[in-house]
Amino acid sequence: MNLLLIENDERVHRPITLTGRRSEHLRKVLKVVPGDSIRVGVVGGGVGTGRVLAVDGEAVQLEVDVSEQPVCDLNVELILAVPRPIMLQRILKQGTVLGVRRFHLIRSRRVEKSFFHSPVLEPEKMRGLLLEGMEQAMDTWLPEVHVHHRFKPFVEDVLPTLDGTGIIADPGASGTLAGIPVAGEAGQRLLLAVGPEGGWSDHELQCFADQGFYGFTMGNRILHVDTAVVSLLAQLQLLYDLRKR
């Protein structure tokens, strides 16, 4: 936990009293004592410092000052064909660590229907994974997660309303991510589409192409979905860092 996250409504009470997982981490991992300072962020708000006032049994009392605002360098929305639950857990957390601002979990032809009944898709479970990613990355932005059970309504009704330049991973494409002129441009909002283990169908690829998505390949090696997502987000961040110089 690199950043202690608190909810905005917790700030109503001064000082803030923490119990449960956050208190346990402060007491047993960080071993805080009165007078210590820790990095604090408000979900959806600013970041700053929390000063430990008291450690009383299983509770920790803090006085917080969150006057700074976190910076978002790269704005990416991830359109993801729902993978196996264990991979989805990793992607929700690691995608948040790497700065995904919104997730669209969609159905494609090669996605098993049973995946949409996974406990991972329960709101509280997903929120917990997102918060873990935020704590790791020291970010206060809580990504939105939208679940779309049918491909056609998503691509015809939802996709045209999304703001950003679309790029889609496709092993059959000829170009690379670095060759897409918009990838990594400063201020550019990107819609990154990543398919299932078996890949997109030809029809699905054409639907994205009709919406103006640029196709690109990651090379000859076929990666697991969770590995591909992390690799792509890291590459986009690198391109952004290089092009803003």
Structure overview:
It is a single chain. The protein has 245 residues and is of the alpha/beta class. It has 2 domains: 65 residues, Hypothetical PUA domain-like, domain 1 (Ribosomal Protein L25, Chain P, Beta Barrel); 169 residues, Alpha/beta knot. Helices cover 30% and strands 27% of the residues. The strands form 2 sheets. Strands 8-7-6-10-9-11 form a 6-stranded parallel sheet, sandwiched between helices. It has a 5-stranded mixed sheet with strand order 1-3-4-5-2. Helix 2 links the parallel strand 6 and strand 7. The longest helix is centred in the C-terminal third of the chain and has 19 residues. The two termini are 31 Å apart. The mean pLDDT is 90.
Give me a quick take on this structure.
With about 240 residues, this protein is an alpha/beta fold. The chain folds into 2 domains: about 5-70, Hypothetical PUA domain-like, domain 1 (Ribosomal Protein L25, Chain P); about 75-245, SPOUT methyltransferase, trefoil knot domain (Alpha/beta knot). It is built from 6 helices and 11 strands.
Task: Output the CATH class name of the largest domain.
Answer: Alpha Beta
What is the assembly state of the chains in this entry?
Answer: single chain
**How many individual domains?**
2
Q: Can you name the CATH architecture of the largest domain?
A: 3-Layer(aba) Sandwich
Mean pLDDT across all amino acids? 90
N-to-C span: 31 Å
Our Rg estimate from Cα atoms comes to 20 Å
Helical residue percent? 25-40%
In percent, how much strand structure appears in the residues? 25-35%
List the strand order in the largest sheet: 8-7-6-10-9-11
Order of helices and strands: EEHEEEEHEHEHEEHEH
Provide the CATH superfamily of the largest domain.
SPOUT methyltransferase, trefoil knot domain
**Largest beta-sheet characterization:** 6 strands, parallel
How many strand units? 11
Approximate shape: elongated
The CATH topology of the largest domain is what? Alpha/beta knot
